[in-house]
Amino acid sequence: MQKIAKYFSWFVILLYFVLGVYILVSSRFQYLSKDLKVIFAAFLFLYGGFRIARLWSKSREQNEE
């Protein structure tokens, strides 16, 4: 069960990064200003990075036990 949760966590992290890129390059969000799109994308990238760091530290703790 833990393997499934780990793979799901990686999938969600990947989804954050893909959504950030999509917001930046998609023409679907033309009504948003360029600055606002960059802010949303940066937030998604930073949160994805935070999730990677948290997953990595949790993985290291489990390996040490």
Overview of this protein structure:
The protein is mainly α. It has one domain (2-64). The protein contains two helices and no strands. It has helices at residues 2-25, 34-64. Helix 1 (2-25) packs antiparallel against helix 2 (34-64). The longest helix has 31 residues, at 34-64. The radius of gyration is 15 Å and the shape is elongated. The protein starts with a helix and ends with a helix. The mean pLDDT is 91.
Helix content: over 70%
Mean pLDDT: 91
Q: Quaternary state, please?
A: single chain
**Termini separation:** 18 Å
Low-confidence stretches: none
Largest sheet: none
Question: How many structural domains?
Answer: 1
Main traits of this protein?
elongated, single chain, 65 residues, mainly alpha, 0% strand
